[in-house]
Amino acid sequence: MGGQIGVEIIGTAMHLPEGKLTNQKLEELMTTSDEWIVKRTGINTRRQADIANGETASVLATEAMRKALVKANIDAKELDLLLVATMTCDSPTPSVACVVARELGCNDIGAMDINAACSGFLYTISIADAMIKSGSYKTIGVIGADTITRHIDYSDYGRGAAILFGDGAGAVVLQANEDPSKGMIAHKMHADGNGAKHLFIPSCQLDFPPEAEFDERKLDKVQMNGQAVFKFAVTKFQEVIAETLEDAGISADEVDHFVCHQANSRILDSARDRFGIPEEKLLVNIHKYGNTVAGSIPIVLDELIEDGKIKPGQKVMFLAFGAGLTWGSSLWQF
Ligand code: UT7
């Protein structure tokens, strides 16, 4: 089938923790206001995993994939590779992917995690598409799952990040298809480690960049220069849309859906304004879930598919940016 293989998304699902972290709850924990958060970010509430009781990234990932397999109408034993995008692995090893494969009863298939922060799911589906088109794999499970709230300081010191992030997971099942036009038609993966200092989680004093002052209270917690990340995101989102459209030889109005990482509604608005993208082509669900890191894109995708908005034959552009710094796109023909 080499060169003649298409890739189809045959199932999607999401799994969110029950625990809610509303703006009102944040008002109790730190100096902030519902009005400020809504105006600056578009977020009303987020979900928070119960880590103390074992609700880790692998639990969210397993449940998301379990549901996606049901929707795809296939058994876990039909998966021949499992890839998980995450930056909040339960522990350094085993990987989330190995735990998910065990919990779902997969065969002894390859299973690994990929860390590109909020761009993780986008990187991972692009890799999965290439693995299927190589002819080596037929059915790949791809998950984006993070429990970032375990790394948030819910006090005034951490309020810049605390208002943004939530926990969640989304999963997709990809399968080889005999129609070679289906699957990824263009993509870009970018990274610039020089920007790592703007968004990082230090484990020890050595992890602090030279310009940041060491403070023990910051260990294991998200450190973010919100304004720097905001500027980077607005610029790179626009650049990567333009370069992907150029590579594919199409215009923005030929894309049916822009499935974007949900980080701040103002960043999404800037992309819509720049390319004249109508609201119905760029779903914003950040008000419900906040920024769920690698979970964000597959959660949006599942919502669109569940609502019957994405139809066969349509073009869908996935877009993300995040820590690293990383950013990229993946344009798909459904
Ligand atoms: O996946 C990537 C993840 N990260 C991002 O996408 C982050 C992108 N950046 C952002 O979304 C925005 O920068 C934030 C939402 C984090 C912050 O919004 P901003 O408009 O850039 O605010 P700012 O940092 O410029 O702060 C403006 C004011 C400051 O007060 P003064 O100095 O003007 O008096 C802050 O101290 O707002 C204050 N402030 C807050 N007030 C209430 C900062 N955080 C808060 C807060 N509640 N949580």
Would you kindly provide a written description of the structure presented here, covering whatever features stand out?
- The protein is an alpha/beta fold.
- The chain has 2 domains: 6-177, Peroxisomal Thiolase, Chain A, domain 1, CATH 3.40.47; 183-333, Thiolase/Chalcone synthase (Peroxisomal Thiolase, Chain A, domain 1, 3-Layer(aba) Sandwich).
- It contains 10 helices and 13 strands.
- It has a 5-stranded mixed beta sheet, with helices on both faces. It has a 4-stranded mixed beta sheet with strand order 8-13-12-11, with helices on both faces.
- Helix 3 crosses helix 4.
- The longest helix has 23 residues, at 226-248.
- The radius of gyration is 19 Å and the shape is globular.
- The structure holds oxa(dethia)-CoA.
- Residues 32, 36, 40-41, 118, 159-160, 163-164, 224, 226-227, 229-230, 233, 263-264, 291, 322 line the site of oxa(dethia)-CoA (UT7).
- Residues 32, 36, 40-41, 118, 159-160, 163-164, 224, 226-227, 229-230, 233, 263-264, 291, 322 line the site of oxa(dethia)-CoA.
The overall strand count is 13
Here the CATH topology of the largest domain equals: Peroxisomal Thiolase, Chain A, domain 1
* Count of helix runs: 10
Listing every helix as H and every strand as E from the N terminus to the C terminus, the arrangement reads EEHHEHEHEHEHEEEEHEHHHEE
If classified by CATH, what would the architecture of the largest domain be?
3-Layer(aba) Sandwich
Q: Can you give the mean pLDDT? A: 96
Contiguous runs where pLDDT drops below 50 for at least 5 residues: none
From the alpha carbons, calculate the radius of gyration and give it in angstroms: 19 Å
- Major β-sheet, in short? 5 strands, mixed
Number of domains: 2
